Amino acid sequence: MADNKGIEGNLPYGKHFAPELLVIDHGEGVWLWDKAGNKYLDFGAGIAVNSLGYGRDDFAEAVARQVKKLVHISNVFATQPAIELGRLLVASGPFEVVHFGNSGTEANETALKFARAWSLRTKGEGHHKFLSFSGAFHGRTYGALSVTPTQKYREPFEPLVPGTFVSEYNNIADLEKTLDDTFAAVIVEVIQGEGGLAAITPAF
Fold first, then answer.
1. Domain boundary among 18, 41, 56
2. I want to staple 105 with a disulfide (CB 3.0 to 4.6 A). Which of 43, 110, 144, 178 is the partner?
3. Taking Cα atoms as reference points, which of 171, 170, 173, 164 lies closest to residue 132?
4. Is 181:127 a contact under the CB 8 Å cutoff?
5. pLDDT in tens, 59-103
6. pTM value?
7. Pairing state of beta strands 21-22 and 24-28?
8. Domain-ending residue, one of 38, 56, 74
C-alpha cells in the first residue's frame, strides 16, 4: 500500500480537484511512480489521452526530432505534417475539412460555434439552441460547460451560454418532446464517461 509521502499540499496553482494532490515523478508502459517511489497501475491515462503509454523511446525520439526542427508557429501558417494528417483524416471520413484542437473541450467548443454559425446563417434567428443529455460531460470551457448538466461544475460560473437544454439520456419520449427545428445542434456521447460508462441504446 502506498504511503502518503507522494502527496503534496499548498500547491502554487488552482485547487481543481483537491487541496492535496499525488505528485507523479515518472512512468513506464502502463505504470506510474510518485515522488516517494510508490508504484501505480495507471487506469486514468491522463483522462483518456495517454494511449501510447509512458517511457517509450520511439515516441520520445519522434518528439525530439520535431522539437529540434520546429515547435509552434500558430494557425496562420501550415506545416507538412499537419497537411498530411488532415488529408488522411478527410479521406477516412465524411468531412471535407478538419479542425485541429488541443483538447476535447476545445473540440466541443469549436463544434458548438460552427453549429450555431451555420444554423443562424442557413435558418435565421431563433435557431440557435443546443441540446445535451443527462449525465453528460463535454468540458469546462464556457460553451462546453453550458452543455454539461452537472450542477457542481456549472454553479460557480452561472449564468452560462443561453439557449442550452437538457433531455434525459436514452429516453426517446423526452427527446421527441424537447427537440424541434429551433435547435442548432445536439451533442451526445455514444458512451458516457462521467455518466457511469452508460452506453446509448440502438433504439435511441
1. 56
2. 144
3. 164
4. yes
5. 999 999 999 999 988 889 999 999 999 999 999 999 899 999 888
6. 0.80
7. unpaired
8. 56
In a domain, residue 134? The reply is yes
Counting runs of H as helices and runs of E as strands, what totals does the chain give? Answer: 7, 8
Residue 136 lies in a domain: yes
47 pLDDT higher than 90:
no
Q: Is residue 76 in some structural domain?
A: no
CB-count burial class (<10 Å; 0-12, 13-18, 19+) for 130: buried
Report how far apart, in Å, the C-alpha atoms of 119 and of each of 124, 125, 142, 145, 188 are.
Answer: 7, 8, 20, 21, 18
Q: Which domain covers residue 45, as residue numbers?
A: 7-56
Instruction: Give residue 1's pLDDT band: very low, low, confident or very high (50, 70, 90).
Output: very low
List residues bridging with 28 in a β-sheet: 31
Query: How far, in whole angstroms, is CA 133 from its chain's centroid?
Result: 16
- How many domains are contained in the chain? 2
Could you tell me if 117 and 50 lie in one domain?
no
Q: Is the pLDDT of residue 15 over 70?
A: no
